[in-house]
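Intended use. Records like the one below are meant for learning the mapping from a protein sequence to its folded structure. Do not use them to infer anything beyond what is encoded.
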Amino acid sequence: MILLTILIIVMILLFTGFATIRRIPAKETENSSGFNSYEYNSYDEFEIWRKILSLKPFIIGGYFAIVILIGFLTSIYNTSEKEIGFTSVFGKNTIIDSAGIHFKIPFVSQKFIYDATTKGMAIGYSEDTDESIETDSLMITSDFNFVNIDFYLEYRIVDPIAYHYSTDNPEGILNNISQSAIRNNVGQHNIDGVMTTEKVQIETSVFEDIQKELASSNTGLEIQNITIQDSEPPTSEVAQAFKAVEDAKQNADTAVNEANAYTNTQIPAAEAKAEEIKQNAEATKTVRINEAKEEVASFEALFTEYASNPKTVKEKLYLDAMSEILPNMEIIIAEDGQVIYINGDTQVTQKASE
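Structure written out for the chain above:
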């Protein structure tokens, strides 16, 4: 539109100039017939203006040729896959969402092209110096402790029309929304969780809150990811205390893992040993039961025989006992007539007369 305005102004100036040249003041004189006439002040001046007027068709033709050339050059443009934009004609907007060569109405159509790649935004620190900005990073937790926490936000333009018309500073609105979501979520966790075990939960909650607010703010931006870069106490003394706590937790985790590993190796061995003992006990139980049954059957048979012939059974029992005892016994008769019975580690001494 600005280019069209300039061309119109130039055209108006050209036609105004030629119209003015036609009305150049001439010197009034009286001719022989008594009528007044006009003549130019000098012959050279007249010749100059006459030549300018003679070039009018060429000047106007050149002007329109330039206009046509400019119109042709400005109606063709190219976009890459990393760009997104739109064209506007008298308030009607058309999205440009594909790469390649595009055409637009010359002079009256405007194009707006933006970078559609993912961009980053540091929250709580400076990307150039990597130094913390405490006005943005210093926050209070649910247990009323202070923490310095930095985030890195990734976003991109998805709606160029909203990005162009909705606000003068879409990135500024995104920054404000992000800081509000971050402070709200950090304030719901204690200092220990913010610095150690609850970082992923905080990142997820902040991402969802920012996404929800961006949808209602109509900035044309979309959040891609947000991560915690660093979280630390505001003083060195507190930082050392938290480091000691973290080391203690790591040592505790190591001890628990080692205990679990020992348990995993010992329990199967103990279970196998217990199963072996159980099987041996079952086998012993079976053997003992069978032996007991055999002894009961033998005793009952012997008792039946004893009832019919007690003397014979007694002699048989005596001879059986002697046959078991005598082979394992050494009999030594001393000089004094004593008999020493040696059976294993047991010694029984009796007199020969006995």
